[in-house]
Write a structure and sequence with these properties.
1 helix, 4-stranded antiparallel β-sheet, Tachylectin-2, Chain A, globular, 319 residues, mainly beta
Length: 319
């Protein structure tokens, strides 16, 4: 059983790198997509039947991935002359209209964080080689930490930090998931939220997020609303003052015995052996990135449907 905060390995014995990602259930498997910054990689995917034993399947997006333009103007740059770009927080959904698996992520140029764009890629299979369709700023807005959410009615929403992370924007996507259709909401003006994760329970929409403190963990927060384009509550604390030394990646709803369980997946970015540490102790970002791990905890609810998590060494409430 994988242990929270420790190095996770796939069934081949290699370190599991799927940071800032998501899990999608399709074709009888759970598919875990996430960042992999090693070598020429950007995004890797693993699959599992039980959310415990993960088989590496493919590096679905790399510096060598095929590029292909789409109808809106995008920048197809996927690598620099002297290095890689940054592709962060990849999220994948299946589009029934096109039969494609569609990836959305945060794009930066690899030299600074001034581009703040969306990027998109697609594939016919969940673990094939994705085709990269480029990056763009939605309606000219900055777009950093992000997530995708599909509602019960099939509508799909993209959320991302904007205005140098000061605000959180909510967009409705086109039916083919290849463009934003409408900017429908701006949340928590000037409160600097990032790492959004969305789930729906009893007709209510919940958004988890963290404050902006770089690689250092901080107090997570949640808010709830009646619709994605409506008002959300003020932010309420989620977890302890460091969210158990993690940052939200995504929330996975799992059906079990006729009941929906909600599982919190978070990244523990700063880890060294058995000690929590900060980035400066490593000297460079890659040396602590490769030691980053995961926190997986059941989300529980009060009688008023307020979500909370309690720390456990291992996730014992699995499928």
């Amino acid at each position: 059983m994988q242990e929270n905060g420790k190095i996770w390995r796939d069934v081949q014995g290699n370190v599991l790198h799927a940071h800032g990602g998501c899990i999608l259930f399709a074709e009888g498997y759970y598919w875990w997509y996430g960042e992999n910054r090693l070598g020429n990689r950007y995004v890797s995917v693993y699959r599992s039947k039980d959310l415990e034993n993960w088989e590496f399947r493919n590096d679905i997006l790399t510096t060598e991935s095929k590029t292909e333009p789409i109808r809106q103007k995008t920048d197809l740059t996927l690598k620099r002359e002297n290095g890689k770009v940054n592709i962060e927080r990849p999220k994948v959904l299946f589009c029934e209209k096109t039969g494609k698996y569609v990836l959305w992520a945060h794009y930066e140029n690899g030299e600074n964080y001034l581009d703040a764009r969306i990027c998109i890629a697609t594939c016919d299979t969940p673990d094939g080689d994705f085709t990269y369709h480029g990056s763009f700023n939605p309606y000219g807005y900055m777009s950093r930490d992000c997530t995708l959410f599909r509602d019960d009615d099939g509508r799909t929403y993209f959320l991302s930090a904007s205005r140098d992370n000061a605000d959180l924007h909510v967009y409705l996507l086109t039916d083919d998931l290849l463009n934003v259709k409408k900017h429908i909401n701006t949340l928590w003006q000037g409160e600097y939220r990032e790492a959004p994760a969305v789930f729906k329970k009893n007709g209510k929409y919940y958004i988890l997020s963290s404050y902006c403190t770089g690689w250092r963990p901080n107090q997570g927060a949640w808010a709830v609303g009646d619709s994605m384009d409506g008002e959300f509550t003020e932010l309420c604390n989620f977890g302890d003052e460091t969210t158990f030394h993690s940052q939200p990646a995504f929330v996975l709803p799992v059906e079990k015995n006729g009941e929906t369980k909600y599982i919190y997946y978070g990244d523990r970015w700063c880890y060294k052996g058995d000690e929590l540490t900060v980035a400066e102790d490593f000297g460079d970002s890659m040396s602590y990135y490769i030691r980053s791990t995961y926190i997986v905890l059941p989300i529980r609810f009060t009688a008023e449907d307020e979500p909370y998590i309690e720390y456990e060494d291992r996730f014992k409430d699995g499928i």
